[in-house]
């Protein structure tokens, strides 16, 4: 059985930190891994971060100058929080008696056990007056946060704000004259640039590792957050979460967050939140305690090669709108299902993640320009962006497929008001309900499932089996994929079925 990698946050979880300490004391080996900002402009003028006169790339054979600048700005973060565990299993005679006879008169009910969990991570000082950036998952559920410096000083930290979608949090300690780390411009970072990772892996103490930027714009797909990771092979482990990824000028270019691993151990695939995203999030957290993000009000999915062929596009790439929320910014701007979004505010849209991040980084209430492709012609739309009230998922599930009984390998029936209501759709919805799917047919290969409702075939509404068969047959004769719009679990998705 193939062992696939898993993306894991690299904070040392509460409880795991204690285990690491025990293993280290015992001498065992533990194979775990553990633009300028207006808000900070005033602080920037007081920063006295030393500059690196000669970098490794300029001929030096040592990173010592960089480390001397960075090390005082990276701290260890220790957390404590409550955890409650209900008794399970047949732990004792008391439990066994309750299993079979319930609580007996005169016997007090069992009280759930409570204990303290401890966690370990890293953080980066970003202002001289005590603001510290770290990961959300490092401080999540913690009610006591301590910041430790490499010189032995310890401070109790206050949580200013935390943002789960970006996995970032901002802390503050009552201290002055600290040495902040200068924030670099992560947009100009290039694949192949040398970077250093600084943090406290497994609680062994501040550690520096070296590597390169392996890739940019990565999305791990591990959650519904805003992801635009820098990928690096600089070794990072449990406890490095929230620590610094710096360039050879001593500038912060990323906040270490996750690794991809087969067995919890570092294999050279790590991910850092880019500094530009971190700058935006910490500005928002400091001014309002939360991050305000815009939303466009569309669900989009990638334009696959089959979809591009079906639509007559020269190549795949970009995103296609599979639904537009009624009354949303996109709706008011005139966006329609089937539009292909080519650019947002002058920047090309390569995939769902890039669009999602660009919309989120735009201030709510501002105007955004979208260049779309509709029916073979480019159009420009202007949308006044709404504020996202909660984490929105702009990405549709990656899935493929469509078809009808004779042509597609499905058994289907016209959608009646009763069937529409049963599927959670308005009773006046028109379409075709998929009842069965031939496991060896084209529809199954494409991902069509029983219960899917086919709303359109090749961008045309479909209300009967004959219309579905005719639409599928027309594309089949052209040797092009059939493009279907389906409704599944309340979401509308475009799917393509290859010709046989």
Give structural notes:
This protein is 20% helix and 33% strand. It is built from 13 helices and 28 strands. A hairpin with a 4-residue loop joins β7 and β8. The chain starts with 5 loop residues before the first strand and ends with a strand.
Number of strands: 28
Compute the separation of the termini in Å. Answer: 31 Å
- Average pLDDT number: 78
Label the structural class.
alpha+beta
DSSP summary: helix tally: 13
Strand order of the largest sheet: 6-5-2-3-4-8-7
Helix content estimate: 10-25%
Approximate strand percentage: 25-35%
Oligomerization category of the chains in this entry: single chain
Q: From the alpha-carbon coordinates, what is the Rg to the nearest angstrom?
A: 27 Å
Q: Can you summarize the main beta sheet? A: 7 strands, antiparallel
* Mass-distribution shape: elongated
Low-confidence stretches: 17-46, 84-104, 107-114, 390-406
Topology:
Elements: E1 6-9, H1 16-26, H2 41-44, H3 64-70, E2 74-85, H4 93-101, E3 113-125, E4 131-134, H5 136-139, E5 144-148, E6 154-156, E7 158-163, E8 168-172, E9 194-199, E10 207-218, E11 229-232, E12 244-247, E13 252-261, E14 270-274, H6 275-288, E15 294-295, E16 298-302, H7 305-311, E17 319-324, H8 329-333, E18 340-344, E19 347-348, H9 352-360, E20 367-374, E21 377-384, E22 386-387, H10 405-408, E23 410-414, H11 417-422, E24 432-437, H12 442-446, E25 453-457, E26 460-461, H13 465-477, E27 482-488, E28 491-497
Antiparallel strand pairs: 1-13, 2-3, 2-5, 3-4, 4-8, 5-6, 7-8, 9-10, 9-12, 10-11, 11-14, 12-13, 13-14, 15-22, 16-17, 17-18, 18-19, 18-20, 20-21, 23-24, 24-25, 25-26, 25-27, 27-28
